[in-house]
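pasting for the record
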Amino acid sequence: MRVVGIVVACAVALYLAWRLRDVLRLVVISVFLALALLPVVDAIDTRIRVPRAAIILSVYAALAAGVIVVGVIVVPGMVKEVEQVSRDAPRASRTSGLADMPGRRAPGGARSLSVRGRASGRCR
């Protein structure tokens, strides 16, 4: 009877965890972030006498500002690189010989022939 109770309790716990998975995900992320920032908050708290809530708020603000600054610096360059790759990809594939591979379309649009002489790329 005890085993049945344990199995039922586990099933109920798993069901509740599944139903609350979005909330649990946020709680887990928040706990890990708080634990990661705890040494920083403690170090600042021992050096200056400011209420702990103000220190925590300033650490979170500095973290958010860092994410924003990295986004402002990194994202525009990444967008430019992706645009350049998308512009250069057709020319690069023509000059690299990828169009001559079996199953690829030749520059004129015709299919290249495979080793056995059949047109490749068709499903049987």
